[in-house]
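User: Can you predict the 3D structure for this chain?
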Amino acid sequence: MTAFADLPTLVLGPLAGRPDADWHRAPGGKWSPVQIVEHLALGLDLSSRRFEERRAKPAMRRRPRALWQLAGYVLLAKVGWWPPGRKAPEMTKPMERPDRAAVERKFRESVERFLKLEREILPARAADLYVKHPVLGDLTIPEWMRFHVKHAAHHRKQILERLAS
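Assistant: Here is the predicted structure, written as structure tokens:
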């Protein structure tokens, strides 16, 4: 499995040195590579900022999760299988034509924020600090990081498809 710290290489590596036209290339009705990177950056940013907001709170308990949420976590964050046709949550939908440099910067900053949280909070808060995922329920920092790695790997495939066309 790719390490969380390797996300910039995983996601941005295929786009390195490419002209802006490649970053904005997409088949009709699909996201472009820059929109995919923005989608990933928004998810990283939202979840890492929520952990920052909650880090000073006392120990938390995970809310009970439904069986389908547990199964979803296994399929998404452990296996890396993404159901076709699943729509992104509104707060992670990219703009129509985002600025490449701003998106790349936000993606890198969000990865760094998570790595800083990991250094400062773990292992002490590995099992008592949660942020709710819109589908999977309450997740810890390590669970969110695992999710983000699998999510980025899923979208890397889409980026590579866009660049090959």
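The chain has one domain: 4-164. The first helix runs from residue 7 to 12.
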